[in-house]
């Protein structure tokens, strides 16, 4: 029964993360794609799992850095599948410096670092207030 409860939590967080990311894209670019719902949901769940993998040992800054790496990695995987393999052309960073195959770049990895802070805080708030988990105590550095 505990596993079913954990899967339900992950599904709820996945759905919320995916929906929020679609909204961010609609506000920022005016369009999105269902694959971004999937990528956003996966990223949100993985960011939330950092507290379970490293309970109380990671500072908030370290969580943000790891989150930026997670998001960049997921973006690379989805970019290679959706943009390169399926040729949907949802994004292209080819014109930006320090890009890899136009799918990830240093500028957007930096954006992900800063965007991860509200994601971390929202995940922790949802886990505490919606899912009844213990409140997280933050270390800042």
TrEMBL record:
Tell me what this protein is called: Uncharacterized protein
Question: What organism is the protein native to?
Answer: Velocimicrobium porci
Q: What are the top taxonomic ranks of the organism?
A: Bacteria, Bacillati, Bacillota, Clostridia, Lachnospirales
Transmembrane annotation, as ranges = 7-28, 34-54, 66-86, 106-126
Highest rank taxon of the organism? Bacteria
What keywords is this UniProt entry annotated with?
Membrane, Transmembrane, Transmembrane helix
